[in-house]
Amino acid sequence: MDTKQVILELRTQKGMSQDELAEKVFVSRQAVSRWENGETVPNTETLKLLSKVFDVSINTLLGSPRKLICQCCGMPLEDDDIIGHNHDGSFNEDYCKWCYADGTYTYNDMDDLIEVCVKNMVSENFTEEQARSYMKELLPTLDYWKKYDELSDNGQFEEFKKKLINEINELNVDGMPKVEKLNALVGKYVNLEYRLPNGQAAKFLNEAKTYLGNQLECEYGGDRCFGVVADMDAKIARGEMVRFMAENSIENPEDIKNFDRLGYSFRSDLSSDTEYVFERKIEQ
Q1: Between vectors from CA 21 to CA 86 and to CA 84, what angle results, nearest 5°?
Q2: Cα(210)–Cα(97) distance, integer angstroms
Q3: What does the alpha-carbon distance between residue 226 and residue 224 come to, in Å, rounded to a whole number?
Q4: Which long-range contacts (C-beta less than 8 Å, at least 24 apart) are formed by 219-222?
Q5: pLDDT of res. 284
Q6: Could you tell me if residue 228 is left (phi over 0), alpha (psi between -120 and 50 degrees) or otherwise beta?
Q7: 42-65 pLDDT, tens per residue?
Q8: Is 210 helix (H, G, I), strand (E, B) or coil?
Q9: Distance of CA 31 to CAs 22, 42, 64, 157, 268, Å?
Q10: What distance in Å separates the CA atoms of residue 35 and residue 60, rounded to the nearest whole number?
Q11: Which residues, at least 6 apart from 246, have a Cβ–Cβ distance to it below 8 Å?
Q12: Which residue, among 262, 261, 258, has the nearest Cα to 276 in the 3D structure?
């Protein structure tokens, strides 16, 4: 499908007029008409705006001319639903949601990633040994691992996971073994439906988000197992605050109170002279 057809189809699906789309991406109605007639193609900056408006990748807007693969694990990115996002919500077409979540790289150890991938690759025609050998050969050729020293966060995310693991283990849930590892999990694939006391069914995870989690067999045996899922928002918020401080050259701690990104705002009633509390507003 050509770009003109893609834009026309997406605009129609959204129930938007050419005027309405033009207003959202700061162009004239005539510009939108020319795109849909195939006379011109949006420039790079406009493509980024269209990507946000339609919630699709730029590659999709251009008719999928490139075969995208995750530059961390090698997964084919054949569906926009599995493409990772930057901290500002825009698509990052170099990574999948499992390897890159809201501006955070979730894997810092190649061997750990290989172990996770191999479990999902084994089949009747592909043995565990073959899968492991394939991944060991593939990963070093991908951009993330070739540029690891440049892209790495110097262990900050791993430290965050260790703290999270300790917090989970301190809950001392009866029958649940100690958590040793947390892997990236996309909500869509772990969002189980639960039956409420009133008979209604409910899901509790955001299917578009990436979480950290694991599945553990019960220490008492049997079919029972434990599913652990933890939100990454705290880690992402801390990273965004660091960016906020750097961009604004903040030296006075008082100025940190102006942080207002990702829906967070300073709560003076919960803060003290030595500890600042920020609360996130949840959109209903």
Answers
A1: 15
A2: 6
A3: 7
A4: 219/175, 219/176, 219/177, 220/175
A5: 40
A6: beta
A7: 999 999 999 999 999 999 999 888
A8: strand
A9: 8, 8, 22, 44, 48
A10: 15
A11: none
A12: 258
Flag residues of the chain having pLDDT under 70.
234-239, 262, 280-284
pTM: 0.72
pLDDT at 280: 67
> What Å distances lie between residue 6 and 20, 34, 35, CA to CA?
17, 13, 10
Segment 103-154, tens digit of pLDDT: 889 999 999 999 999 988 998 889 999 999 999 999 999 999 999 998 888 8
CA distance linking residue 110 with residue 100, whole number of Å = 14
Q: Closest by alpha carbon to 11, among 74, 55, 58, 73?
A: 55
- Tokens 């050509």 — which residue? 2
Tokens of 185: 């999990």
Q: How many residues does the chain have?
A: 284
Whole-angstrom Cα distance, residue 175 to residue 240?
Answer: 37
**Residue listed under structure tokens 């406009």:** 46
Enter the tokens of residue 73.
């694990």
